[in-house]
Specification:
- By secondary structure, the protein is an all-alpha fold.
- It is globular and about 145 Å long.
- It starts with a helix and ends in an 8-residue tail after the last helix.
Amino acid sequence: MAEDEKILKDAKKLPWEDRLAHKNWKVRNEANVDLASVCDSITDPKDPRLRDFGHLFRKTVADSNAPVQEKALDALVAFLKAADADAGRYAKEVCDAIAAKCLTGRPKTVQKAQDALLLWVELEAVDVFLDTLEKAIKNKVAKAVVPAVDVMFLAISEFGSKIIPPKRILKMLPELFDHQDQNVRASAKGVTIELCRWIGKDPVKSILFEKMRDTMKKELEAELANVSGGAKPSRKIRSEQDKEPEAEASSDVIGNGPTEEPVADAPQEIDEYDLMDPVDILTPLEKSGFWEGVKKTKWLERKEAVAELTKLASTKKIAPGDFSEICRTLKKLITDVNLAVAVEAIQAIGNLARGLRTHFSASSRFMLPVLLEKLKEKKPTVAEALTQTLQAMYKAGCLNLVDIIEDVKTAVKNKVPLVRSLTLNWLTFCLETSNKALILKAHKEYVPLCMECLNDGTPDVRDASFSALAAIAKSVGMRPLEKSLEKLDDVRRKKLSEMIASSGGESASTSSVQSSVGGTATVNSEAPVVRKSAASMLSGKRPALSAPASKKAGTAKTGGSKKDAAVRNESSKSVEPPEDVEPAEMGLEEIENRLGSLVKTETISQLKSSVWKERLEATLSLKEEIEGLQELDKSVEILVRLLCAVPGWNDKNVQVQQQVIEIITYISSTAAKFPKKCVVLCITGASERVADIKTRASAMKCLTAFCEAVGPGFVFERLYKIMNGHKNPKVLSEGLLWMVSAVDDFGVSLLKLKDLIDFCKDVGLQSSTAATRNATIKLLGALHKFVGPDIKGFLNDVKPALISALDTEYEKNPFEGTVAPKRVVKTSVSTSTSGGGLDSLPREDISSKITPELLKGFESPDWKMRLESIEAVNKILEEANKRIQPTGTGELFGGLRGRLLDSNKNLVMQTLTTIGGVASAMGPTVEKASKGILSDVLKCLGDNKKHMRECTLAALDLWLGAVHLDKMIPYIIIALTDGKMGAEGRKDLFDWLTKQLAGLSDFVDAIHLLKPASTAMTDKSADVRKAAEGCISEIVRVSGQETLEKNIKNIQGPALALVLEKVRPGFVQEPFESSKATAGPVSKGVSKVSKSTSNGTLKQGNRSRALPTKGSRPDQITSVHDIAIQSQSLLNTKDSNKEDRERLVVRRIKFEELRPEQIQDLENDMMKYFREDLQKRLMSPDFKKQVDGLDILQKALPSLSKDIIEVLDILLRWFVLQLCKSNTTCLLKVLEVLPELFNTLKDEEYCLTEAEAAIFLPCLAEKLGHNIEKVREKMRELMKQIIQAYSVAKTYPYILEGLRSKNNRTRIECTDLIGYLLETCGTEISGLLKYLNMVASLTAERDGELRKAALNTMATGYKILGDDIWRYVGKLTDAQKSMLDDRFKWKVKEMEKRREGRPGDARAALRRSVRDNGPEVAEQSGDLSQTVPGPLFPRQNYGISEQIPERNPVPRTIAGVNGPADWNEALDIIMFGSPEQSVEGMKVVCHELAQASNDPEESAIDELVKDSDGLVSCLANKVAKTFDVSLMGASSRSCKYVLNTLMQTFQNKKLAHAVKEGTLESLITELLLWLLDERVPRMEDGSQLLKALNVLMLKILDNADRTSSFVVLISLLRPLDPSRWPSPGTAEVYAVRNQKFSDLVVKCLIKLTKLLQSTIYEVELDRLLQSIHVYLQELGMEEIRRRAGADDKPLRMVKTVLHELVKLRGAAIKGHLSLVPIDMRPQPIILAYIDLNLETLAAARMLTSTGPVGQNHWTDSTANTPSPPPNSADVQLKQELGAIFKKIGDKQTSTIGLYDLYHITKSYPKVDIFSQLQNASEAFRTYIRDGLAQVEKNAAAGRTPSSLPLSTPPPSSLALPSPDIPSLDVKPLMNPKSDSYTEEIRGSNINPGTLDAIRERMRTMQLATSGSLESVSKPLMPTNDNNIPVDEQNIPPSQMGEEAPHAHPHPHPQQVVLPMDEKALSGLQARMERLKGGSLEHM
């Protein structure tokens, strides 16, 4: 022991690898234990220790010692729980080791191995997991295969099909089905069943069944019969667990309660197509002789060849390939002269479409026209083949609605009607099977097409058009059809509405069925958390918690966190697993061992005795011992097993038998839980003892005790099998008699009645023994007492003699309804149905009997066929014993609903009877399944035939028998308020209600009937009033006092007195309430509401009859009540949710009168938010009360402004209601209050919302033409006030709609209003000019006043537009033009009299002012402010005086009356305001910028710099909004302001430099997009906007940060996201747009690149090179080579930028690669290009190389030699100085060279640069010294090289030729051109050193640069055309300055060389003489 301890102690010091590989197994064991504890302690999955442990498990899990191996698996499980997905790198090796070594070990080892494998799945190593299983199932040892299959099953069960791909599992299963071991085959079946739960049965069957043996198929079919879908994953992968920590926490809190799974976790049916492997059919097709066969002359041979293709293409998934030639051949064969060949070809096309799906899209579009044309064939075989093929093509996704538009349009215009109708039928199919988004995209094409086909002469075509329109409405609603429906006549509109309604009902019913099925599946899918094996899925082997299984489940470690395990443990305690009912075999010896000391040994030995007295004594003593046990529950099963073994049920002594039965009865009744296993052990013996008269009583008691313990359902099921096959007939007869007593005791709620009735019918009544038959009759009689007479329907096929005996028994046991059972079951037993009684009877599924032929019969034109269909439904009900399920009845109800509107009244009555029968047969579920058919049934009460109404009431009686009355109340209320129902119908319905309510004692829902009943009390018909009065009496009786008190305020008129008399005897109704007698729901529109109450009062006779007369006491009570009410606030807006109400408002421009339900909603809202007295007054039918209410409201307006805004929508709805009424007094009061209301809103700075405008403005526009002049005047002024307060652009559409009114006065008023808008608001409002043609067309109207108004309005337009107005008048007749011309001449004369100038002058002057002086000048003139609809309230001035505080109802976007108060408020307005409102903010910003720019100290600019980026970002966002608004017809004023503000911002360099790169990118992108938008030139002032965009873009390029500009533009060379474009387009359009966009970006880059020589020190070269590197790397070398061959402009531009950088910086460019990963492999592409440029430039002598050119050593960017010497720094510095001096010596780069030298002196202050110039001339050194001084001075002043030109070139430049700027093309990189000046010198043979040479050079330079002196910049885009100019990159460098844009009027010094005079030349000559002694060549 000591030695082992020492070994263990020493081993702990060893590394993990040594400990785990130690030769001593104890060391290895302890190492695994320690490793597990370390892993358990790790909480961070990124802990570095985990990375050290991962590789260890490959060997540890394969340990040869079983205990060590088990500990290794524990350690592995702990490791996997602590690790994350990174551990997947070790998965393959470890999983292979587990599969090889652990699956054949001990049970615990196997289980832990399975846990480890599942944890690998949790860590997302699914592929490795499945690879391992593929190897494991091939193991020769069956013992190792079963665990592998089990873990496969567990993975699918726990993780689901989303994580575990079913396709790979399905490939493994066929091999397992043929395994020699039955356990493996059983497990494979279990996996198959589990797969069916996840992906459905059909895919599994189609893939696996063809590979199985027949016996296996049968077994699996039987197993799959009970499988239901809807499985949900119980476990998630680690990444999903990390995403949902909150969900885990909530699950801890909830515990075992029901949890809602997220929608994403819901299992989805997997398409079988995705699981199949594609099959290549092209190769076998070639071999089959297809191509030769189709060319044969004999039709049979052609057909056989095509049939071979059809057969090959019938495979479910075809491998893609080139089918173009096949399709061309099939297209020809479609038109083959032989129809059989054509049909075969059509079928082949269908098969190809199903097998290829989307790969067949092009071919489908190719063949579609021919297929549609072929529909003209009348042969059924051809038509059917075409229909199936066309549907297959669409269903397979080969076509979509957009693809087929043109082909369908062509087909429906075909001259053959059959083509038209069948095409529309196919279109209907496509619409029904398409998603909503696709239909929304395409419906605009199809709706007009179908509407046109409704006028077709062929009925089939019309019907098909109706079906297509109904399909569109079913999918996307009625909105797309609204405008089209207006054009239809009433008959067609009615038919279309019926079809839409019927299709809607079907879909709804289907969805309800699906939802119910889904709900069931969810419940069924919940299973206990126990470890299952695959074989446990088979029938009879469901997972049970037997002793071994429970142990295993308890010790197994599940994946996931410990927290998850805790949750699972808690849930496992609360959810009990299914009980195992089949007892295992157990011998007597084992029973005795388990009993132990529980029972005395002597007792057991006596029980075995052969002497009956000893056995009897033993049973008595055993009974005493059992009665004395304290914990009987633990020993129930073993005691029962003992008694069944000894003395057993076959003991021949009666006394012993009775004692045994009594003991078992005692145990079953005393134990808290009596297992079903024990019942199974005892029930056979007990049933046999019932047959013995001596033990019958005891045995029956025992069976009853069993029922109390486990429920009668289980006992009955077991007895059926025992009694049916027993040899003793008494067992059956006496057992049936016991069942009679059991039914009487327990009822039928816990029994499966169908099984019981079938047993009685098939066994009991068929018995040859009279006692058995009699017992069966008694049992059925007992059932009749509980389930009623409907039981007779299940016994119709019994012999007549037995039926008479049964009827006699039924009379003895009459139906008692729901009866409480005499005995109850101790434990909770799941009931087979929802309850006992009638609903316990089985219901039949009739969905299979509702065939398409039956449904088609309902729509048959032959009434006999329709009658046959109705009778067929009755027959189906009879066959189902009038007990049916709701499944599949949605279409049945749809068909029956259509027959309720049948023209044949006899059929309608027959339909009503059938509907009642269906409702009675379906029971309570009919309410959901019928989806509102009851409302159509109630409409039949409106028939004037009494027999029809009687049939309807009979149907209602049957319906009431199925559902409770409360479910029918909503439909009844709608029927009672329907104005179309006659007086007889309402009277009959009230009588029926009275009859039904009379049978009820308490029915609270009856209160809802009170209001329609009280309305009926004022009906014209006395019979209706009388019936309503009787109904109200019953309603008051059953509703209860409290309910009536709450709802009494809803009662009006005589009904109120009636109710109060019953509730408060002696109560007198106050006069105020009496005036409400006629209020209530109305059916025929609001305009008819007030006809009966136009005077506001009732007849005096009615009032006196309604009111009892008593004293004045109630008046005092009422006044006290009023005082209490008036103490409350007038408006209660506490719970108001205005947004929710507005969301329900339909935004319509056309006015529609309020419907009754809308009036009801208004009344409900007013009751909720208005004080009671105000609400009563406003909703009173008495106009005087309404006027009083308006007075109250008018007085409260100033003080309740905020509350009124909150309920403004309700108030406007009420005003609309009043505008529709005819009482003048009330109307005038309304028009008095409304202006004050809008003034209040103006004071509150509140703007109407779109919903509020849609509520009020349509009505106001329609009612402008009131017949009273005074009312019209007030409405006219109100509309003008609203125009000022709301928005001209938003009010204008409602006024336009008024021009379409049927009321001529309304049209006149709206025409005048348009003239008013033209005169006051100018022509710039949204869409005004476009609609002038509507006004002009009115000049042709008959009404003279209307013509006059139209002519006046057009004259007003002529005054503003001049002769331009003729462009907008549209097509007019000569007479109309003559009238207009006369009126225009009259207008000219009138303007001359008033000295108003010529027509159109004002508009032309305004435009000139805007064009010449900008918008500000025009603004000052006061004209521009009227051109655009301004903000909510017109501004008096634009000063910035006081700041308006923010108000809650007002958005931040609305400024105060005097404009924004300061800079911050202006920014807020720009950011949040509308385009027009933001103009005020931009004015302030421009003013501030102008003031700051004029500040000499620039302190103001410095303060604005911090807001510069935010301002530009805000303006960039505003660009798109302003342009979009202007494109819709609004003024371009806001666009100009935005561009002007941006221009002022970018004119200042400090502000421009403060703009961040991201903001700059969004701005540049936006500007370039609008430059390219083809709609901009068509905008108002479009050419000016294009110019402004060009100039602004140039200004940005000039003043913005150079680095950011480069980086942004290079990034924009990539293709732009289509969503960024302002207008949508196709793929081809986007390609063209991207090409134009990149060309524009290239132009910008050309401008920046040309200026690089002077601005290179403003650019951060590191970032610029990084952006070039990213661009090149994203392309890749292959793409670069391809583009180089295609002459790609963006790539050439990037190469040009890089070339220019290398040229200017030389080898020093390598020092700017800090942001480029130069160490990556392969090397970055940019490095190769830099080397190439260096070599090229050096070869052209345009660069002085400072080291070996083209070197590949990039590790140290500053070193230019591969192996630098020790003093490499000095050498490098000398080389760099040499390069700089050569730059200084070149006239082109002298300035840059001086700046480089200046930076060197700053970087190396101790280095003496002049020591390097010892051999240079004194003049050169003086030049350098002076130049450095100048550079230092410039640097101190903050100026860059571009701001200081050197007027005199360096001395050395006179003797050295210098290269010019290279072309921006890529090609010159290889062939650089020499300097043009030098070439000219060489060509003229002039000595460069002479004075003549100098003069010649100066002259050449002057001529060359004369073109650059222009000060006008050329724009990026032409202002009159959107086409991008010719490629500018091939332009020679000398011309680049002319093409590229410039913002500054003066050229850069590097581009312009000023001419020199003779004096300067003389000075140069003198300098040349001094330089003769010096040279730079030695340097």
